[in-house]
Amino acid sequence: xxxxxxxxxxxxxxxxxxxxxxxRPTDALPPPSxxxxxxxxxxxxxxxxxxxxxxxxxxxxxxxxxxISHRTMEKVFPADHxxxxxxxxxxxxxxxxxxxxxxxxxxxxxxxxxxxxLEGKANQLGTMVRSHLPAxxxxxxxxxxxxxxxxxxxxxxxxQYDVTGGRYEEADHASTGSGSLxxxxxxxxxxxxxxxxxxxxxxxxxxxxxAADADSATGGPDLIRGIFPVVATMTQRGFERIPDxxxxxxxxxxxGRLTSQQTGGTEPQ
Amino acid sequence: xSMPFYVxxxxxxxDRADYAxxxxxxxxxxxxxxxxxxxxxxxxxxxATLRKVSEIYDRIAFAxxxxxxxxxxxxxxxxRHADLKGYSYSREDVDARSLANxxxxxxxxxxxxEMKPMEVEILVAEVGDSxxxxxxxxxxxxxxxxxxxxxxxxxxxxxxxxDRLEGAFSPxxxxxxxxxxxxxxxxxxxxxxxxxxxxxxxxSRTSGRRAFRRISDDEVTALLPAT
Lengths: 269, 227
Description:
The structure holds two protein chains of two kinds.
Chain A: H1 16-23, E1 41-42, E2 45-49, E3 54-58, E4 62-64, E5 67-70, E6 76-80, E7 83-90, H2 91-112, H3 118-131, H4 133-137, E8 142-150, E9 155-161, E10 167-170, E11 173-176, H5 180-190, H6 197-214, E12 230-235, E13 238-241, H7 244-262
Antiparallel strand pairs in A: 1-4, 1-7, 2-3, 2-11, 3-12, 4-5, 6-7, 7-8, 8-9, 9-10, 12-13
Helix pairs in contact in A: 5-6, 6-7
Chain B: H1 9-26, E1 30-35, E2 38-44, E3 53-57, E4 60-66, H2 68-88, H3 96-113, E5 120-126, E6 135-139, E7 145-148, E8 151-154, H4 158-168, H5 175-187, E9 198-204, E10 212-215, H6 217-223
Antiparallel strand pairs in B: 1-2, 1-8, 2-9, 3-4, 4-5, 5-6, 6-7, 9-10
């Protein structure tokens, strides 16, 4: 591989996507044609703002038609030190989009010697979703959520996208994927300003559980195999994933509460 | 019809080498030293924004001296080379040796074919899983590559500084010891460099995926031996 050197008028700047277009145009995913294939889909993810920053959570199930194709798929990823991205939609293109997005942020940071602003990162992701539109029209839609801690404003912020690349900043919470209606309702009812970390993690897990309960394409906690939703927080400490043991303990107490509600127990909530 | 004067190839090469050396000698030096956790790179640099030492990839760092725009162009080409390679193959497949070779090819090509050679000397360092896999490559203006196994110095006063480092270096130094040795060698016996005039960074085995870390002025001051 020779060093990629460009003339001043042809320089791709700090954009990795532009660089890739210059050196290897054939590597970009070709728009699919013909009849839609049976492909793997990812499902429910939520983002909630809280006192210290913002939280992203996603279930682990991927489906192909009516079959479960993966039980351990991760849909919440760190984008860089202070932000994360969660995906719903066609798994293959979504994973590729996340990989390119992570690379894009790191590439910019190294070439320019400075971080992009949170707004800049959100716009970058919007551009990637928009350029994916031809594939989305063929049934390979990817709809991400982007959340991060804005170090310049010292707050957590979250962004929602549509398949056309439209970028919408949400004030408090957002959800996407097939179970988003149920998850979003639980979050909407349980949300209040200034939630603590423990409360917001419980709220997100409850939302995912209700989504899994009503939507066959969303996976609930798998206590037998020890597979739990991925929950991550973005605060001034950066992106941190909540350990599985902690998630397990919270699920067990959530299930206890729900069971006692069902059987008419006296334990509140 | 006018005929160009004949100039012997030896003379052309010598003139170009002299030209490049003169350009490099005007700049301040940089040194890379292997230490217990990886590689330490210290450069004499009065600017806090125009960097000589930078991150290339997860375990690879770059240092350049000479003409800023030229080594910065090489730095950016290196980042692109590494990111493209990591994207096409895998992150583990990106290594300093192949990058140093790519730099050498390019500098050699420019040295023999272009009007003007690049007035730069660069270091490419990689931290390995264990100390014996740490690597430092020095690439010169004419494309020659040197594989260093303990430390390496680039810049105008490289020979003198190398002699001083020879005395101060010992294998398995801790971070403070490595900073002391590198900065002591850069400054020499007659002056003391403080954190403002230095740019220090490490590639550390303990830093996680992205091993590169800049050491802040305050940390450098704390690490330097009290004068």
